[in-house]
Here is the input.
Amino acid sequence: MSAIAFPLPDPRILARREEIIAGLAALVPPAALITSEDERRPYETDALTAYRRLPLAVVLPSTTQEVAAVLKFCGEQGVPVVPRGAGTSLAGGAIPQEDAVVIGVSKMNRILEIDYANRVAKVQAGVTNLAVTGEVMAEGFFYAPDPSSQLACSIGGNIGMNSGGAHCLKYGVTTNNVLGVTLVMLDGSIVEIGGSHLDSGGLDILGLIVGSEGQLGIVTEATVRILRAAEGARPVLFGFPTSEQAGEAVAAIIGAGIIPVAMEFMDKPAIEICEAFAHAGYPMDVEALLIIEVEGSDAEMDAQLARIVAIAREHGVQTVKESQSAMESAAIWKGRKSAFGATGRIADYICMDGTIPTGQLPHVLRRMDEIVKGYGLRVANVFHAGDGNLHPLILYNCNDPVEAQKAEDAGMDILRLCVEVGGCLTGEHGVGIEKRDLMNVQFNEADLHQQMRVRAVFDGQWLMNPAKVFPLEGRVAA
Amino acid sequence: MTLHTPSSEADACAFIASAATARTPLALVGGGTRAGLGRPTQTERSLSSAGLTGITLYEPSEMVIGARAGTPLAEVQKTLADRGQMLPFEPMDHRALLRTSGEPTIGAIAAGNISGPRRINAGAARDSLIGIRLVNGKGEAIKSGGRVMKNVTGLDLVKLVAGSFGTLGFLTEVIFRVLPVPERVVTLVWRGLSDEAGVALLSSALGSPFEPMAAAHLPAGIDADHARTLLRLENFSVSIEYRRAELATLLNCHGAPELIEGAASGALWQGVRDARFFAGSQEAVWRLSLAPTNGPKAMAAIARALQQARWYYDWGGGLVWLAVPAVGDAGAATIRGAIRPLGGHATLVRAPDAIRASVPVFEPMSGPLQRVTAGIKASFDPAGIFEPGRMYAGV
Here is the structure.
């Protein structure tokens, strides 16, 4: 595929490659600098593997000071920089370009401090999302944002993309769970924003940094909230004869004042794919599946589930399967959380990530099916029903360039549909390089220019992750 | 002072564009109930959101409400209450503390990131604010965010505008995430604890699985002769019964709590939320944000130097409301000196104009952050017409 344009590499930078590498070598230990082609290869793409560019060099610093030195050098030399966490971006947020230096935080993977009394943890940016929970689990605590990639993805990347996951209906996304960061700016200055306290003292610059996709600076450390886990959690499977009924049940549960900790929706193709992989006991004779999880003591969960089941029955639920054991609960979530991997076993796919008002669900499911069929392809849907974050998986054969292009076009049509019904282009994966050229579908010129002027306050030269987020044409300065 | 009250966003755009050309400074006004917040400013003209009212969107099943910026908060709350819902962040009412009148507006709640005791569990106004429309200082109407809860499309200007006190733009519409009203609310009260013990109790409770939605400590002398430590539970009745018993057991080393609910519980938390304990006095009032266990540490240091200080804790100890005599720098040097080694910040919420003009009202920033803040201000408002100097000199 080659539909997404990359900026042409600056020949002057390419010509100075040896000189730039020598400059970098003076700033970091030899082991932190990767220059050979073989060793740069793993950094040429992220989880949007259809696109690849070999970076000029890769630097893996171990300290905030090293990040500052490298950023300052790149800024002075006019060399583009691509920040990288664990490289799990599905939107191509960490894909480099030929004239860019990748700065990866993977070596900065220490948990620095845990403060249970104040319910915060201070961690380096390369720590994986799940490692934070792993560290505090013995005390009954957890870190709430839980993207499906949480085993591998880093806190730094989560902050870049404002990641969420299945449980954010109750606990919020990254921006609701980060209290402070150490940020290195392009001029090498190191600033502390926020800390272990709530709310900022001036403009909410922390709120701006979260979700900025590596365009404003590089986060090297973060102070995150840790929460005490509920006494127990129990997922229940609900099978519905139609998607409409499943959608109505979700609305009725919320209308009854119940906010489950998660509500996940899967359509029939997704159910089939996930069940074949995880053997979770998903019902195969239904059109739509909801996984609804509640939390609390056993008695609290019983009471809440009784209400939810009663509402589901009012909306024609066909199958109700309450988990009877920790093993069954794990299997139910394994099916959902492995949806992407399981789909990958049967076909190549593009995973889209739009958000819609949940009331539009039946219309959007119908239109998505029409769109994808119109291109002669198939789609499977999993999504967060509580918050309307869709993940259509468009299946195609990547060895067929025509089909690959069709899949990409279908995905873009679906995202346009999301905006058309009042939603947005991306709920949790980010804009990256993937949706950059659709930004003007959601935003008009004044909206985009305001964002770009704010961006340029941090990086007037457009060197930080420059091929991402904003359309290449029409970029403005501060 | 002349007042302009646009009746539409387009009208606001035209007015602001001409003010920008003439470089006319503007005060941005909602209901005027928070007019005394921030540094005193000198503006020739005011721009009011009073003409921009009405709920624009309400989908209870999607837990989302949108309203034009000048809509009275009370109207938004009534609309939500009719369907058993509420704003999650329990916004503070500043009228008693600042001795203002008028009706708080939903736009000002967003612009000031105005939150209350529930902030500790449910997040601040900024956490529930999911979409805005505003007119920037060039007279352009722009939007950020939207009506859906999860949205990572482009830079999150919503957060930046929340808490900017009108310095970045004139809000015309705001969209909030909402939550169901809980079936039952109760407050557990422990008496006679020291600051340290009270905050330790709150930390234990907030680190338990029983989800307190608000947690405050009122030292002796704050509206009662004895100290009171408060935990609020909100949930279905069956959970309340279970959780209050579990919490009483967990915290029994601090004594047995009494239980209050209904009007008495509501009034107590309204006092905590609105800093009503300081409403009738002439003292200067500060708001300190710290890591919770640092609250008592900071107060011990401050109380040694400012012996007439009175204070209480919200947010599990992490928010300190502090009243000191309104003389000199109103304790600024002492207070900020005590916070500096601990992390956090202090904001001067109430003081005579002369003190607010001479003492930094918001926490001073490092050089690089000052430059970024000034740059962001200029990116929204290049002519510097919105509330000039309200937050910082030049911002």
